[in-house]
Every structure is written in C-alpha cells, then in structure tokens.
Amino acid sequence: MRAEELLDALLEMNPAIRYAAIHPGSGEPVFRERRSGRAPTSPDGDRWEELVVNPTLIELTSRSGNVEAGGLEYVVIRYGLFFQLVIPLDRGHISLCFEPTTDPIPSVPAVRNLAEQHGARPRGR
Questions:
Q1: Which one of 8, 10, 11, 125 has the fewest beta carbons within 10 angstroms of its own beta carbon?
Q2: How far apart are the first and last CA of the chain?
Q3: What would the pLDDT profile of 49-88 be if each residue is shown by its tens digit?
Q4: Residue 99 and residue 82: Cα distance in Å, rounded?
C-alpha cells in the first residue's frame, strides 16, 4: 500500500476532511493533517485513537456484523467537534476526521475506491 499517496488523495477528495490516517495493521499509524484550520484533538490523542480505539471498535462491530448483518463496511462516530469515519481494511484501517457539518457517509464509496487504487483492500462489499 502506498500510504502517503493515499493520504494525500483522501485529503484532496473532500475539503471537509480535517485529517486522514492509515493504520497498516501493525506498527505505527501514518497521519496527514490539512494545513488550514485548528485540529480538534492532539497528535498524541490521534495516535492512541488509531492504535487502540479504532481497532477495538472494528473488532467489536465486526463480531456483531459477521454474525447476522452481512459484515462490517464502516463505522461512523459522532464526537462533539467532528465525525470520525473508520473503514476496515484486510490489514488495518483508514480513519478520516470530518467537519461537524458534513455527513461522512456519502464519501464511503470514494474512500473505498481510492484505497483500492492505492493497494489497500477494504473489507466488506
């Protein structure tokens, strides 16, 4: 997977994306933050979100989704200051932080297509 190129492409896709992260499944996540605007969270908080919170959410929701709901395609979290879209990959995940006024769900097909174009394989459909 070409993580740096994919992160750039994801940020170019939608100006409402504040930051993009890819966790390759092991090791450290790779981040790219939009230069304009103020980040709603700290870099250290973002790192732990990608290392612990999002993989745990994917694991828990995948278990439920795989039983009777056709699998897990993505998770959307609505925090007070932003939306977080998490898309599981065969190895790791993609995580995008959206402005609070933007619905992240319409971006899911484009994110999945970009991931595939850059050598990452989204889980699900």
A1: 125
A2: 19
A3: 899 999 999 999 999 888 888 889 999 999 999 999 999 9
A4: 5
pTM of the model: 0.91
Give dist(CA 121, CA 49) in Å, integer: 21
Do residues 47 and 54 make contact, with C-beta atoms less than 8 angstroms apart? no
Going through the chain in order, the beta strands assigned E by DSSP cover: 17-23, 30-33, 75-78, 83-88, 93-98
- Please state the φ and ψ torsions of residue 69, each to the nearest 5 degrees: -120, 10
User: At residue 11, what are phi and psi to the nearest 5 degrees?
Assistant: -65, -35
Joined together, the tokens standing for residue 101 give 């006024």
- CATH 3.30.450.30 assigned to 3-117: yes
Tens digit of each residue's pLDDT (9 = 90 or more) over 1-21? 688 999 999 999 999 999 999
The residues near 91 (Cβ < 8 Å, ≥ 6 apart) are 24, 25, 26
Asked if residue 118 lies in contact with residue 1, where contact means CB atoms within 8 angstroms, the answer is yes
